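Backbones bend. Our protein:
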Amino acid sequence: MEIQLGAVESRFADMIWENEPVTTSQLVKLAEDAFSWKRTTTHTVIKRLCEKGLFVNNKGVVTSLISRDTLYAMQSRKYVDDSFAGSLPAFFAAFTNGRTLSVEEAEEIRKMIDQAVEHG
């Protein structure tokens, strides 16, 4: 499953995740304050995000079907697949090109690798 979000949709989705469960009236007020949106714009974007499978609007209460972390993981995998032919080492080499890792960052990455390694 691929879910593409524009910058404003992404900021609005963050607003939902931070406040869920949240009513559509609360979202109208939040979006008016944050983006100067009219009520109709907010309802249109809610509908669009629900159609993309991120959220569900049940009787005026919006909740997530996919967590923010899950969405970002899906987008990250797609980026690595598209840009680096799915190669994590190639992605990591490009990501660290010209920069150094702190000891803490390196240790955290080692732990992630150890947890993700298949033990056959």
